[in-house]
Amino acid sequence: MSAERYERGLGMLAAVDGVAGQNVVDTLAQSFPDFARYVVEFPFGDIYARNGLGLRERELAAVAALCALGSALPQLRVHVQAALHVGCKPREVVEVVMQMAVYAGFPSALNGLSVVREVFAENGIPLPLD
User: Is 87 left (phi over 0), alpha (psi -120 to 50) or beta?
Assistant: First the structure.
């Protein structure tokens, strides 16, 4: 079962984040191979592979949660990029982060928007959005 779970996780990771996700796992595996396996198996092999939500919805939820945490900006960066990769519109990403001002406070939303600005710039997405 573990090999199947890992392979399913690799497939979902590729669907969500393309080559970038595999690079993150490979880098993590150099120092912490067990944890790299957990990252592939549990979130991607178990949770992302479930029916009920599409990848767009899962990534918008991940962006919201990571923004609300406020302490996971590197992971927020990865998931903003992943949201774009799975077809979320830039406006949707911005609106989800702005929504976090209501539930997580303005500092979390401001920090999240800073990450969004950086990821959008790297992807040639001009701001402000029309």
Answer: left
pLDDT tens for each residue of 22-58:
888 999 999 999 999 999 999 999 999 999 999 999 9
CATH of the domain at 60: 1.20.1290.10
Q: Give the whole-angstrom CA distance, residue 109 versus residue 122.
A: 20
What Cα–Cα distance (Å) separates residue 18 from each residue in 10, 59, 113?
10, 14, 23
Report the number of distinct structural domains present in the chain: 2
In percent, the amount of the chain with pLDDT more than 70 equals: 99
Q: Give the domain extent around 84.
A: 54-130
pTM: 0.92
> Is the distance from CB of 74 to CB of 97 less than 8 angstroms?
no
